[in-house]
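Students often ask why inverse folding is considered easier than folding. One informal answer: many sequences map to the same fold, so there is more than one right answer. In these notes we will look at a single instance of the problem. The structure comes first.
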């Protein structure tokens, strides 16, 4: 919970400190964005914090798993071998939740847009990810949806070797149905260190 709160507060303070808030102030030139990417380029290992439920006050209670990701181009970020269970806390169908949780680890690709170097940030857009599952003895597919390039789906370089990011997931759909299988939007927070 603390990581999720800190992540949200960090971005809010950055945004509030920028009085003009126009796009040029944040994103600068392609060369400036590439310079920011170079300060973060690499492979990372760390923890992914996700809600495992809510307490009596409606606040998220968190759990964590190990996570690995790569930032190897100036436009993409890849989360490797992500356990689908980090995205199913609020799935309202027990059989579906079990089917997703027991499916294979997945790769989550994100588009990223870096800011000017002084902000040490990027905004993220996790691509819609389709995952094969086995539900009631039959093959199905679920899709995971997330916020795209918002003030809540972003990352920040904390120091020369550490990056923290938050991604907000909005929906899970089964077999192309528009019916959302999750009860609420929720964040996942990743904090990791660049590997040598």
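Output (designed amino acids):
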């Amino acid at each position: 919970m603390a990581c999720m709160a800190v992540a949200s507060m960090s971005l809010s303070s950055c945004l509030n400190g920028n009085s003009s808030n126009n796009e040029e102030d944040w994103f600068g030139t392609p060369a400036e964005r590439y310079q920011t990417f170079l300060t973060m380029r690499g492979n990372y290992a760390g923890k992914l914090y996700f809600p495992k439920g809510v307490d009596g006050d409606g606040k998220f209670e968190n759990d964590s798993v190990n996570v690995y990701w790569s930032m190897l181009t100036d436009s993409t970020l890849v989360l490797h071998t992500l356990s689908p269970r980090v995205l199913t806390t609020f799935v309202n169908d027990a059989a579906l939740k079990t089917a997703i949780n027991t499916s294979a680890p997945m790769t989550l690709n994100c588009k990223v847009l870096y800011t000017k170097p002084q902000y040490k940030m990027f905004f993220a857009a996790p691509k819609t990810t389709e995952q094969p599952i086995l539900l009631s003895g039959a093959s199905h597919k679920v899709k995971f949806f997330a916020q795209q390039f918002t003030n809540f789906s972003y990352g920040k370089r904390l120091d020369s070797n550490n990056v923290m990011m938050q991604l907000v997931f909005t929906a899970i759909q089964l077999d192309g149905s528009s019916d959302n299988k999750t009860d609420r939007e929720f964040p996942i927070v990743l904090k990791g260190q660049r590997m040598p």
